[in-house]
Amino acid sequence: MDVSLDLLMNAMISGLLLGGFYAAVSIGLLGMAVYQVYYVAFERRDDQSLRGLSFFFGLLFIAEVGLILVFGVDYRSVNARYIGPSLQLVLFDLPWRLLVPFLVSMAMAIGLQIFLSRSFLGRAIQAVAQDQLALQLMAANPTRIKRIAFGLSIATAALAGACLIIIQPVEPSIGREYIGRVFAICVLGGLGSFPGMMIAAMTLGIVESLTSTFFGPSWAPAVAFGVLLVTLAVRPSGILGR
Amino acid sequence: MASSLNIANIDAGYGAVRVLHDVSLSVGAGETVALLGTNGNGKSTLMKSIMGIVRPSGGSISAVIDGATHELIGLSTEEIVDLGIAFVPEGRRLFPKQTVTENLLLGAFRPAARPAIRRNLDFCFETFPVLKERARQLAGSMSGGEQQMLALARALMSAPRILLVDEPSVGLAPLLVRRTIDKIKELKDGYNLTVLMAEQNFTQAIRIADRGYVIVHGQIAFAGESAEALNNNELIREFYLGT
Amino acid sequence: MRGTPFILILIAIAAVIFGLARWLDNSYAFFVGYVVVQYIVLGTAWNILGGYTGYVNFGITAFFAIGAYSSVVLHKLVPAMPLPAMIVVGGVMAGIVGIGTGYLTLRLRGVFFSIATLALAVVVQTLITNWDFVGGARGAYVLRPRVAPLIGGGYIDYLFLIMLGLCVAALATARAIERSALGFGFAAIRDDEAAAEASGVPTLRLKLIATGLSGGFMGMAGAPLPFYVTYLDPASGFSLNYAVNAIAMPLIGGTSSWLGPVVGAVLVGGLQEYLRVTISSAVNVLVAGVLMVVFVIIAPQGIVGLFKRKR
Ligand SMILES: Nc1ncnc2c1ncn2[C@@H]1O[C@H](COP(=O)(O)OP(=O)(O)OP(=O)(O)O)[C@@H](O)[C@H]1O
Ligand SMILES: [Mg+2]
Fold first, then answer.
1. Is residue C302 part of a domain?
2. What is the tally of structural domains in chain C?
3. Model confidence over C36-93: pLDDT tens digits?
4. Residue of C113, C124, C293, C301 to mutate for A, most A C-beta atoms under 10 A
């Protein structure tokens, strides 16, 4: 294999940019993890976790088939003036196609993190998974908090999806690949840890980018699972788990 | 302004099990009232009934907050807290994975508490210096005594008018029990609170209480109008003083 | 054996169904029947883990496709190998992967386990897509023999018979689990795993048994697939349809007993086939998903549960 510095550099850079994008997707999972608690508590007697999960799985499937009915199974892409040209720097090129989603994702992830750690609502969202009664004793309604958290996570994920089509063409089932990625990032970073998530997202972005550069893009989806397995085996609480 | 609590003839329990039978009790404005009773007699159940965690099947619970009267039965726990009634529950119920400061800030979630957040935080750190030292430590990793302090401080952050505390002494060493009880008094005086405190530790509770009730098998067995009266009560002698 | 009469009844029913299909002598009936019975097996397999222990597996296609692709490999290596032997191999392979998954995801509860299994499906698909020996992304053709061995007639008759046999085995296993100590152990894990562990239930071993059995039956259900479709590529072998049907059918029929997946598969499978013929294949795919969402909301105990409550 011919490894030139140039190629390595470009792979690293696009990996970093890709990582920024993954970061945005993953923060949506924080919301999911929180909402999951809702189900466990909500109808435990009816083992709602089984049905609640299947419910979401059904929605995933319906959304996917709905998209297929509307858009077909083919890859679709968009056009924008910034898709194509690159920002030329001394050592390497920064394609705008990756730079724009990176900046959008970073702004979103950091904004969300500030919201979660600085606002009353955000702090309540972080606490609701730990003790619902205690949260009620803080005058907060846990169901409302979870609803907000869930909505926020969905919105974040949707925005991330909008960024994805700038990076690459998409097709209706592509979302499934991201479930594994996002999950791997959250586990690797340590659930609930923002810096951990950032590091993990960057790492996965780089490793995936290197993998598709040197082994071919068809191997990229397997990287996340590899990362997940290694994390679970070596350090299940993640890099920065609380 | 005056804030008080009035409980009249409530029955409450869990499912088919009746725990409280026709319990009546009142806490006057600015009073500290002790709810005394040994294990399993229904202290926590009464506290939970007031907070809307357990739904009474009969009777009424009303609170006067700054002059306005509210019927509590039927309100959700968060609505009751929002009125200005704070509760330090059994087991403290801190957020273990949040830091001390985060726990305190969560205490101020109540909109009415937000404007005074800075002042209340300073007061908490001043009253409980240990919390200031450990401001960035995770609540779950603190010692039992520190956790009790944090639970009290967190309740205070909601700027309550009425404070309910369920067995503050449980699991603490004698010296710490003494300190905790003193702190409750300090908070009460500092914020002019109305306090209802469930306790098994009679001698400690009676140091700061104006009055007290003894609850036995879910019924008020004795209402002592003063610490003196409680001291001389037969039930107390039997259960606590072993004479 | 207490279960023997049950197995005999199942065999009798399967024999009647097969006899009926032979008497109709319509290959369409065999093709439809195969699909429905395949879903009974898949649904039952999913239910052993999902319904009994409460662990929701979303990665059905991983196990199903492992079975299917192990047949592709065996067919290339040993073309003369009889189908039942391939099914055993496919089942064992998928069962081993099931146990492995169980081991690796032991720490994961609830939604995390489910996401991990979904990720597993993506990984297995990636591996197969990159494996040229089985055709990679292009897919592989498998020559279906024209006549059935032993019984004569079209090969589809034989495939249907094999699938019926698998179905009998799966249902007998599921019912045996329900009525044994194993079933009580599974239920204990479902209701409260921590409490079960604290009271001495060997949760680890039970979970591995469940993941192994569940994965094994999924693999076995997938093993005859290449001969049914004759052309298998990763996109169709890993189609989300299989996963949704395998989850939807037990949930619609009822997860508490072996009968649920049967009822669900017959009703939903039948309805899908009807819609495919009368309206379009795009709509028929939606049916399982929509029905599942509706059922988990309004009839959480499934159809079997509805009848149980009435009595
Ligand atoms: N969640 C519950 N479900 C059923 N019964 C309960 C529940 N909580 C308490 N009880 C019962 O109600 C009775 C009173 O309990 P409670 O917790 O009010 O007592 P307590 O006076 O607070 O005792 P302790 O000093 O031990 O905390 C006990 O008999 C207890 O078993
Ligand atoms: Mg108690």
1. no
2. 1
3. 999 999 999 999 999 999 898 989 999 999 999 999 999 999 888 899 999 999 999 9
4. C293
Count CB-CB contacts under 10 A for residue A122.
19
ipTM: 0.91
Beta strand B68-71 with B219-224 is unpaired
Distances (CA, A) of C156 to B34, C25, C140, C144: 82, 11, 19, 9
Q: Could you list the residue range(s) of the whole structural domain that residue B133 is in?
A: 4-241
Q: Which residue has the higher pLDDT, B58 or A190?
A: B58
| Residue A23 pLDDT | 56
Which chain A residue shows the shortest CA-CA distance from C50? A50
Pairing of strands A86-88, A93-95: antiparallel
Flag whether C183 is in a domain: yes
Q: Residue B133: which CATH number?
A: 3.40.50.300
Nearest-Cα distance to chain C for A87, in Å, is: 33
Chain pair A-B, CB pairs under 8 angstroms: 67
pLDDT of residue C3: 74
- B window 66-85, beta carbon within 8 A of A: 76-78, 81-82
In a domain, C248, yes or no: no
Whole-number Å distance between alpha carbons of C213 and C49 = 8
Residue that wins the pLDDT comparison between C115 and A134:
A134
Domain assignment present for residue C173? The answer is yes
Ligand showing the shortest atom-to-Cα distance for residue B19: 1
A19-36 pLDDT, tens digit each = 555 655 555 554 454 455
Chain-chain contact of B51 with A139 (C-beta, under 8 angstroms): no
Rounded CA separation C33/C44 (Å)? 16
| pTM of the entire predicted model | 0.81
| Phi, psi angle pair for A168, to nearest 5° | -155, 160
